[in-house]
Design a protein that fits this description.
7-stranded mixed sheet
Length: 333
């Protein structure tokens, strides 16, 4: 009795009859690999941003993204001129980047204003909700997400640590960049803390000329016993100049984060910005692989490093209390 073969059975017989070479020809061709273009929009200068850019590259390499193979990193720098940021953001879009990494709060605003479609990953913003960048930390809600370093919350702690290192501290100064709104928030929180600690605070404004010499002359006239550089990429980029002037004036300098203490300051207390850039790479990776930035929660820094510089302390005749030494994450000798 003859039975008709089902369509499935006929297909199996046909495949068995085909030679292996023919089967290879029937397989779908693999998708052609595409180089992802990632833009970096920086407020600062290439030399000042080198460590952070390398941290971003390191984080991307660990996730399989390598320049020259499947990644092109397109970096543009405003050199401290915030007015250039909109044009630089437009330049990145004209160069067809798939994603923009914003290296500061001002850069994030410029990228947001330039595009509602291209994803934006911010690396070192302070408080993206209060600053109006995202709808919420858990659900950013638009094309932006990234890392919030939360430096504002520890501004008072820096002054407390300075008072601990210098018990006789009565007058201190803070460097202030008027064009950076984050400086105003830092100043307000620092001033409130200073009242509690009985410290008179002096605001040292730095304008577009970056005339730190005049700023430190003003600091000396005000008889400030120490100077604080808040969370600001301009001050990080100019750390060598600021550190040299602080040393020449014999004034202890307190920096914002771990990277600033190595050469220039008495101590630093804050998040590692290098670490923030490396963690930002995880957002770049997920978005390039199809994730929606609107649903990627903003990650907040929760660890703040205390780094003490014994070399600077000795030069200034300062002895850190044992309790402060015991709490330090790192001591530079």
């Amino acid at each position: 009795m003859t039975h008709k073969c089902s369509s499935f059975a006929r297909r199996r017989l046909l495949l068995r009859a085909l030679p292996a070479a023919a089967l290879l020809l029937m397989r779908p061709a693999p998708a052609q690999s595409r180089v992802a273009r990632v833009g970096l929009l920086s407020t600062g200068r290439p030399d000042a941003e080198r460590a952070y850019i390398e941290a971003l590259r390191t984080g991307l390499r660990r996730r399989g993204w390598e320049e020259g193979r499947n990644l092109a990193l397109v970096a543009v720098f405003a050199h401290g001129d915030y007015g250039r940021l909109p044009a630089l953001a437009a330049e990145l879009l004209a160069r067809k980047v798939d994603l923009i990494v914003a290296a500061s709060t001002r850069a994030a605003f410029a990228a947001r204003d330039a595009t509602a479609k291209v994803p934006v990953v911010f690396a070192t913003v302070q408080d993206p909700v209060d600053e109006g960048l995202v709808a919420s930390l858990s659900r950013p809600g638009a094309n932006l997400t990234g890392i919030a370093v939360n430096s504002f919350v520890i501004v008072p702690k820096r002054l407390e640590l300075l008072k601990e290192a210098l018990p006789q501290l009565k007058r201190a100064a803070m460097l202030f960049e008027a064009e950076d709104p984050s400086c105003q928030v830092s100043w307000e929180r620092l001033a409130d803390s200073a009242k509690t600690l009985g410290i008179a605070m002096q605001k040292i404004e730095i304008d577009a000329s970056h005339d730190y010499g005049r700023a430190f002359a003003s600091l000396a006239q005000g008889r400030a016993q120490a100077v604080i550089a808040p969370t600001n990429l301009l001050f990080l980029g100019d750390a060598p100049r600021i550190g040299a002037l602080a040393t020449n004036h014999g004034v202890p300098l307190v920096q914002q984060g771990a990277e600033g203490a190595d050469e220039h300051s008495l101590f630093s207390y804050g998040p590692s910005l290098v670490d923030a850039y490396e963690r930002a790479a995880s957002y770049v990776d997920r978005i390039l692989r199809g994730a929606n930035p609107a649903t990627l929660p903003v990650e907040q820094s929760t660890h703040y490093e205390l780094v003490l510089n014994m070399k600077v302390a000795r030069a200034l005749g300062i002895s850190f209390p044992r309790a402060m030494l015991a709490r330090a994450d790192r001591v530079i000798d």
